Amino acid sequence: MEMKKLLVLGVGNTLMMDEGIGVHAIYELLKEKDTYDESRVDFIDGGTFTQDIFFLFEQYEKLLVLDVVRAGHPAGTIYSLDEADLVQNKKQVLSLHDVDLLDSLGMAEMRGHRPSLKVVGIEPEKIDWGTELTPTLARAFPGFVKTAKKHIEDLLA
Question: Which CATH number fits domain 4-156: 2.40.40.20, 3.40.390.10, 3.40.630.30, 3.40.50.1450?
Answer without folding.
Answer: 3.40.50.1450
